[in-house]
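In line with agreed milestones, the collection of sequences with tokenised folds has grown. One record among many is set out beneath this paragraph:
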Amino acid sequence: MSAPPQPPAQALPADALAKTSADHLTEHRLTSETLFTGRFLQARRDTVRLPNGAAATREHILHPGAVMIVPVLDSGDLVMERQYRYPLEQDFIEFPAGKRDPGEEPAETARRELLEEAGFEARDWEHLGGIHVAIAYSNERIDLYLARGLTHVGARLDDDEFLDILHVPFERAMAWLAEGRITDAKTVVGLLMLEQRLRGGR
């Protein structure tokens, strides 16, 4: 049986978002099935009740959360990484990042990942915010941090981690972004947030 037709969407002015609820858009879980449990990811298939009463299937991935660090050297250069990413079978230029361990606060993860991957400790930290990178099929949230006052103390890579550390002038990184050399979503957001701060004198 097909679902009843939907009424035309009504456009809301932006100011109305603060005064209205999204309850009429909420999907309610009816059943849930675990399809796969890996080292840190879990895939699930849920049946949900849609706002119009019909049922639908939602396949999604549960993620423990992650962080990314935007490390800025005293010279103004950025500490970045070149790393091979198997799902896309190519190397990417990224900022240091990593998943949260159980019970670990994002700020702790940021300090640990900057040290382990890039070999730096930072004197000054700023939380830039959080992003959701795959909202259609994952609950993954990445917290972004700006790190300044860097001191190099040596990397501590895991046995299965292989990467190059790069010191990249900000203008070069933005050129790579414009040229499509940098396409990693979290790194794109980090660069744009940094650009905003540099323009504002922060």
Remarks:
- The first strand starts at residue 28 and ends at 37.
- The beta strands are 28-37, 42-49, 55-62, 66-71, 78-85, 90-94, 97-99, 120-132, 141-152, 163-168.
- Residues 43 and 93 are 28 Å apart (CA to CA).
- The mean pLDDT is 92.
